[in-house]
Amino acid sequence: MNSNIALPYKQNDPRWAGKLLGDSGLAIGRYGCYTAVSAAILAGTYKVKNRKGEPLTPGDLCDMLSVIGGYNENGQIMWWALARLFPECKLWTGAWTSALRAGQNGNFQVVDQGAALENVKEALRAGIGIGICVDAVLGDDVKPDHIVALVHAPNDPSEWLIMDPITGRFDRFMERYGDPRSGVLGYRVISGPPTEFPPYSTSDDQDDGIAFWKAVQIADGKNVETYARELAETIMFVR
After folding, report:
1. Assigned domain for 71 exists
2. pLDDT tens digits, residue range 37-94?
């Protein structure tokens, strides 16, 4: 496992547990799993630093998002906010999986469970940051109430590893949330310039990750001419 894919951050670490998520009145310690996972991925996979030149922490990210109004009233990160703070990174897309019962899908598309697992495995191999939505509160009718960072996803689901902000450790998914084939309830994708990959990633996987990041940058109108030309040259083998 490459432990740099997401840094091990615990959301109720006393250094930031009491920080409020914008104007929501909610604190990281209880409601900041999304902030902790985002910081873990940004600092790990994408090497984002704070103003001191140190790896970005959940406390740093909370402060920065709060200043720009980057949280909604429920303490969730607004979709535009990460790109405002870190132009090379972006909260790109998300989906729920078919493991959810009907009516719980909100505003996101619903992806077949098998396809969803393939999507997140492929993304991780390509060095793309992945948050996995899970049910952490038992007895509430299988609701996606928590998010963890995926750090290791080989073909055998029993070997999947996550960084869970509840524990601040690298844990087996199956030991905390059951079989991924039923326990993965959704996913969120954070794009950026890939720097960290799992040990089973191939050079083709890594090229795909870089191409994906450039495509996201183009979609946002950044470095359009340069990245579009690079992608075209890669696809058409023209130099």
Report:
1. no
2. 999 999 999 999 999 999 999 999 999 999 999 999 999 999 999 999 999 999 999 9
Mapped onto helix, strand or coil, the DSSP state of residue 146 is strand
Q: Are 94 and 130 in contact (CB under 8 A)?
A: no
Q: How far is CA 62 from the centre of its chain?
A: 16
Query: Is 52 among the domain residues?
Result: no
Task: Tell me the pTM.
Answer: 0.93
Q: Rounded to the nearest 5 degrees, what angle is found at the Cα of 27, between the Cα atoms of 94 and 162?
A: 45
Number of structural domains found in the chain: 1
- In Å, how far from its chain's centre is CA 160? 15
Is 116 among the domain residues?
yes
CB 16 within 8 A of CB 62: yes
| Amino acid at the residue 168 | G
Residue 159 CA to its chain's centroid (Å)? 19
Q: Is the dihedral of CA 153, 91, 26, 72 positive or negative?
A: negative
**Burial status of residue 173 (CB atoms within 10 A of its CB: 0-12, 13-18, 19 or more):** buried
Per residue in 116-171, pLDDT tens?
999 999 999 999 999 999 998 765 566 789 999 999 999 999 999 999 999 999 99
